[in-house]
């Protein structure tokens, strides 16, 4: 548009002689740029390596946590199965006695255990045994 010819099709164009006036980087400057680039690449690679290591450690911790949760769940299931088995046996004993047991409702005595109606009798027997053995 003007005599310097800076605009053509609405764009700004530098004068053709301007590129030739810029100073070319020296070999020393190029080597410096390359060294900086190489250092940045090494730093990036180290960061990537550290990230991979951290992710592997995290994944191992997650596996250990999942394993511990599975063990806990198995232990809970075993406990619940044992409780259910005991309750089943208790109910079977109670139903086989057909409510003829001298025990109060809700109290059951496992098979093979001597039934005592009065706890005081048991305590008296223990005290007599202790006094008779100490006097001998």
Automatic annotation (TrEMBL):
Transmembrane segments: none annotated. It comes from the Eukaryota. InterPro entries: GAGA-bd_tscrpt_act. One of its GO terms (biological process) is response to ethylene. It is found in: Nucleus. Keywords: DNA-binding, Nucleus, Transcription, Transcription regulation. Transcriptional regulator that specifically binds to GA-rich elements (GAGA-repeats) present in regulatory sequences of genes involved in developmental processes. This is GAGA-binding transcriptional activator.
């Amino acid at each position: 548009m003007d005599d310097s010819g800076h605009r053509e099709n609405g764009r700004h164009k530098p004068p053709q002689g301007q590129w030739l006036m810029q100073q070319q980087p020296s070999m020393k400057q190029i080597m410096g740029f390359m060294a900086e680039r190489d250092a940045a690449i090494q730093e990036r690679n180290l960061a990537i390596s550290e990230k991979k290591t951290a992710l592997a450690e995290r994944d191992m911790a997650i596996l250990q946590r999942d394993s511990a949760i599975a063990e806990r769940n198995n232990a809970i299931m075993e406990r619940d199965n044992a409780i259910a088995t005991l309750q089943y046996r208790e109910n079977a004993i109670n139903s086989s006695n057909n409510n003829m047991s001298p025990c109060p409702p809700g109290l059951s005595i496992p098979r093979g255990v001597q039934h005592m109606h009065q706890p005081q009798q048991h305590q008296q027997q223990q005290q007599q045994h202790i006094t008779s053995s100490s006097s001998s």
